[in-house]
């Protein structure tokens, strides 16, 4: 089983630091840091707005990866969710499994 984990970060520096850490620790085979996005969300009873950096991680260990992202993250409640991949190009799935 492989998965893509989606997470957002406060800025590019945090996204890069956490991505490098989890790839080095082999919790993710790869991380794609995406362009900044504008987020509108409810936090502690107020509507907030923020610029954030989304990222996609490829992993065979989604639960461990999400836990590690949460431990390294600056937010109290970081967004980190897994999309389990039911079908994938076999060599790609094997690469993800071998590297995470």
UniProtKB/TrEMBL annotation:
UniProt record, GO biological process: response to metal ion
Pfam families the UniProt entry points to: CutA1
InterPro entries reported for this sequence: Ion_tolerance_CutA (IPR004323), N-reg_PII-like_a/b (IPR011322), N-reg_PII/ATP_PRibTrfase_C (IPR015867)
Protein name (database record): Divalent cation tolerance protein CutA
Homology family: Belongs to the CutA family.
Entries under PANTHER family matching the protein: DIVALENT CATION TOLERANCE CUTA-RELATED (PTHR23419), FI09726P (PTHR23419:SF8)
Any one GO MF annotation of this record: copper ion binding
């Amino acid at each position: 089983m492989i998965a893509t984990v989606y997470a957002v970060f406060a800025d590019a520096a945090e996204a890069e630091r956490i991505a490098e850490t989890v790839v080095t620790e082999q919790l993710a085979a790869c991380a794609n840091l995406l362009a900044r996005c504008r987020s509108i969300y409810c936090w502690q009873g107020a509507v907030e707005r923020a610029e954030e950096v989304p990222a996609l991680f490829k992993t065979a260990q989604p639960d461990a990866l999400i836990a590690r992202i949460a431990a390294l993250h600056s937010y109290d409640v970081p967004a980190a969710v897994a999309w389990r991949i039911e079908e994938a190009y076999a060599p790609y799935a094997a690469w993800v499994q071998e590297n995470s």
